Amino acid sequence: MGQITVYSGPERRRRWSDEQRRQIVSEAFRPGSCVSRVARQYDVSTGLVYTWRRKQMQQGEALEFAEAVVDDAGGPVHGRAAIIVELERGKRVQIFSGAPPALAAAALKALR
């Protein structure tokens, strides 16, 4: 005779409402937040959080992003950044006035 193992406990497949998904994605991508920490808090995989975010962006839903400041004081000066994007943990991205437009656009697109 064979042996059967029966696992009891909560069902692993859960259903998340659209509002719950929005809340989790918003919290996960808030400045200073950590996606894996938020995912653990809600007992959801990080891959699913990224999938939800991608679907929200494809549907045209507004997501919150980090603030970007354009420095136009005194016009473009060699050696002085024209655009500075402050990131979490004190990191920053600087785009200088002499940068080719395609490079500046690629850098900003990568920050999305």
- Chain-averaged pLDDT: 78
Uncertain runs are none
Q: Class by helix and strand content?
A: alpha+beta
Shape: elongated
Counted up, domains total 2
Give structural notes:
The protein is an alpha+beta fold. The chain folds into two domains: 1-64, no CATH class; 68-110, no CATH class. Helix content is 38%, strand content 12%. The chain has helices spanning 18-28, 35-42, 46-58, 101-110, and strands spanning 68-70, 81-86, 92-96. It has a three-stranded antiparallel beta sheet with strand order 1-2-3, with no helix packed on it. It is elongated, with a radius of gyration of 21 Å. The chain starts with 17 loop residues before the first helix and ends with a helix. The mean pLDDT is 78.
Keywords:
alpha+beta, 112 residues, 2 domains, three-stranded antiparallel beta sheet, single chain, 38% helix
Describe this structure in a few short sentences:
The chain is α+β, with helices and mostly antiparallel strands and 112 residues long. 38% of the residues lie in helices and 12% in strands. A hairpin with a 5-residue loop joins strand 2 and strand 3 (92-96).
How would you summarize the topology of this molecule?
Elements: H1 18-28, H2 35-42, H3 46-58, E1 68-70, E2 81-86, E3 92-96, H4 101-110
Helix pairs in contact: 1-3
